Amino acid sequence: MHTTRWIVLVVVLAALFMDLVDATIVNIVLPRMQSSLGAGYSAAQWVLAGYSLAFALVLVTGGRLGDILGRKRMFLAGTAVFTAASAVCGAAPTAEALIAGRLAQGVGAALMVPQVMSIIVVLFDHNRDRAKAFVLYGITLSLANVSGPVLGAVLTEADLFGLGWRSVFFVNLPLGAAAIALALWLMPESRAADALRPDPVGVVLIGLTAFAVMFPLIQGRERGWDAAAVALLGASVPLLIAFAAHQRRRDRRTGSALVPPSLFARRSFTAGTAVMLVLFSGLASLFLVLTYALQLGLGWSPMATAAAIAAWPVGITLMSGVAQRYATTRGRRVIGIGLAVMLAGALALITVLSAAGPHLAWWHVALPVLIAGVGMGMCVPILTGVVLADVPEDSAGAASGVANAVMQLGTAAGVAVVGTLFFWLAAGAPADPGDPARARAFSAAAATTLAYNAAAFLTALLLLPLLPRTARPDPVDPPAPHRTDGPLVRG
Q: What is d(CA 245, CA 248) in angstroms, rounded to the nearest whole number?
């Protein structure tokens, strides 16, 4: 049994690694996908935002289903869905098929990822072994952070078996199949004694609300903001009201609301979720803009783009240990410094894009990105712990699920808003890839658009005084890894 549980740990960490890397891989090769499938810019936004949106909407339900039906069962189901969806993405003949596969990947990840932490806690009941397991968990996160962008570029440019960008999805098939086989053979089953029930009506209502906002934001420009897009955006308000009313009613009757209303009676949690929403709206969208500006505007290869953007996870890795060290003594202050550093990195990036234009060099991008990564490494790994600091222990699990879902919704919304603004600004660029005017136009569009990202980091910084001063010292339910669909951090 002692050896078996370490093998099971490798299995769940391999599945987690597969999910983590997949987000960064897609971001790097997205322009190649779009060109290969003859898709529009809105389709590219859906490839990123759809994944985060599906993950956010199913995340809390995925955790509850694992508690009720068994974590092994839901881990297997999630891994199977994720692996099958990867095959659909790799074989996609059209942009619509790729988007459908990405949505399915998000659902699979939302069923799989919440089980990883629970399985580790169940497997390792001795403090020393559990500490070793979490060290390996942290190493997995760091490896995924650093390897994702480079791996995506290498697979695409190597053009294995003539697959091009499709290999970034097909590489998941052997990993997923091995994880499923070993989990079936070795993983023990476990369930929670008093699990909260799923809230399918709540999931449907919040899903419709999110779609009513996301579809017009992404498709509105291409549709000329027709009556249907405007009406759909207007419908999001009554849908949100209906969702809130349903949550209050379900909380009174069964105590198993998807989003317990009592959480928002605490100012610190309400402000914390606002910080998360705004902050994460500025993360993935930043790398969407950079990837398109560098590859389509300046003609950089995926490998050159990945080499510059890889400075981001390097910065995160350098500082995340420092953040953890001070989380329970000076958590809010460390987060504030991190946000200020991220803001400085974004402003530096805007400056070099504006000044260098078509003469932009690798180090012009890498240095500001490294600065922003250092800032992120100081704040994001401990942000959830600070946001949850004033939440009662019996509500910590629900609050953690809500906080992680808000991050994913912020990611999806940021991709929708920032992507739409960037593609609108870049629409007038010359079509000739070798024209310096095209490079200048894309650089200028990127610099203008990134003002949103800088404003998002500044807004999060201004809201910070509303949060508790320190992190929860020993979270009851540690937060799931955080996805940015760009170079990422999980904490």
A: 5
Output the pLDDT for position 178. Answer: 94
Sign of CA dihedral 237, 259, 387, 52: negative
For residue 132 the two structure tokens come to 């070793």
Q: Going from the first residue of the chain to its last (491 residues), give the mean pLDDT of each consecutive group of 10, the final group possibly shorter.
A: 82 88 82 91 91 90 89 95 96 96 95 87 78 78 75 85 91 93 91 82 93 90 84 94 94 88 88 93 90 92 90 85 81 93 97 90 93 91 85 78 88 92 90 86 95 96 90 50 44 36
Tracing tokens 């317990």 back to the chain, one arrives at 260
Q: How far apart are CA 403 and CA 359, in angstroms?
A: 41
* 188 contacts 176 by C-beta, under 8 angstroms: no
Question: Helix 2-37 vs helix 41-69: angle between axes, to the nearest 10 degrees?
Answer: 160
In angstroms, the Cα distances linking 424 to 32, 277, 418, 442 are 20, 24, 10, 11
Note whether 124 and 133 are within 8 A (CB).
Answer: yes
Question: How far is CA 432 from its chain centroid?
Answer: 33
**Cβ of 159: how many Cβ atoms within 10 Å?**
12
How buried is residue 292: exposed, middle or buried, by Cβ count under 10 Å (0-12/13-18/19+)? buried
Quick one: pLDDT at residue 161? 84
pLDDT at residue 118, as a whole number:
83
Distance, CA of 21 to CA of 305 (rounded, Å):
16
Helix axes 95-123, 2-37, angle to 10 degrees: 160
What is d(CA 455, CA 418) in angstroms, rounded to the nearest whole number?
12
Residue 125, number of CB atoms within 10 A of its CB:
8
448-472 pLDDT tens trace? 999 999 999 999 999 999 988 887 6
**What local confidence, expressed as pLDDT, does residue 383 receive?**
87
CA pair distance 152, 149, nearest whole angstrom = 5
The type of residue at 189 is E
Lookup: tokens for 393: 């222990």
Among candidate residues 445, 464, 479, the one with its CA nearest the CA of residue 343: 464
Q: What is the 3-state secondary structure (H, E, C) of 303-349?
A: HHHHHHHCHHHHHHHHHHHHHHHHHHHHHHHHHHHHHHHHHHHHHHH
